[in-house]
Amino acid sequence: MADKKNIIIIEDHPLMREGLAAWFKNTKRWNVTGTASSLKEAMDLLPQVSYDLVLLDIQLEDGWGLDIIGALPKNPSPIVAVYSTFDSYAHVSTAMSMGVRAYVNKRRSENELEKALLKALNGEIYIDEAAQVKLKTVSNLSLRDLLTKREREILSLVISGLSNMEIAAKLNIKRRTVENILSCVYDKTGIRSRLELQRL
């Protein structure tokens, strides 16, 4: 990598967050321009720093890490990579459908993580081997297995009759985020209308 890339790390476990930040700094190949432990901290951080890549955990102390994607700039759009213990079909497929370019399990070392990030920066898609196996077994999954916790939460609110705007207000997220998550639900279930969802 000729030029250092700017990275921000969004991770709620202090030791993991600080360890990753120290590792990336020590390589001399990355500029760690910021870290955050929660959605709120991340939202506050985003407008204050420059970044080429966002490395995030899916489960944060105050919510769903993927909700950050809707707050990222569109032009130019940073690369988003997930480093998570979750490698189920539901989590991986949702992340990739929302534009994540690299999905790495936390069992992988920092060196393996960096290789995945470099591939993403070079325009490739990287999916952890463990996650790839899960993606191939979708035919045997139940509806609950197909959906992430966040997707099930939003689905239950749709079934209860709430509009997208009401769901966004209730969960304190953007309406666009609700729409994106519902799009994932439609794709995974094969359902094409809100009325059908409400009949589940």
Write up this protein.
The protein is α/β, with parallel strands linked by helices and 200 residues long. It has two domains: 5-135, Rossmann fold (3-Layer(aba) Sandwich); 142-198, Winged helix-like DNA-binding domain superfamily/Winged helix DNA-binding domain (Arc Repressor Mutant, subunit A). The chain is 46% helix and 16% strand. It has ten helices and eight strands. The strands form two sheets. A six-stranded parallel sheet has the order 2-1-3-6-7-8, with helices on both faces.
Topology of this protein?
Blueprint: E1 5-10, H1 14-27, E2 30-36, H2 39-45, E3 53-56, E4 59-60, E5 63-64, E6 79-84, H3 89-97, E7 102-105, H4 110-121, E8 126-127, H5 129-135, H6 143-146, H7 149-159, H8 164-171, H9 175-189, H10 194-198
Parallel strand pairs: 1-2, 1-3, 3-6, 6-7, 7-8
Antiparallel strand pairs: 4-5
Features:
single chain; 200 residues; alpha/beta; Rossmann fold; Arc Repressor Mutant, subunit A; two-stranded antiparallel sheet; 10 helices; 8 strands; 16% strand
| Shape designation | globular
Let me know the CATH homologous superfamily of the largest domain.
Answer: Response regulator
Tell me the Rg in angstroms. Answer: 17 Å
Structural class, judged by helices and strands?
Answer: alpha/beta
Mean pLDDT: 88
β-strand percent reads 15-25%
State the total count of DSSP E strands: 8
Please name the CATH topology of the largest domain: Rossmann fold
Q: Tell me about the biggest sheet? A: 6 strands, parallel
CATH class of the largest domain reads Alpha Beta
Total count of domains: 2
| Weakly predicted, low-confidence segments | none
Terminal Cα separation, in Å?
50 Å
What's the CATH architecture name of the largest domain? 3-Layer(aba) Sandwich
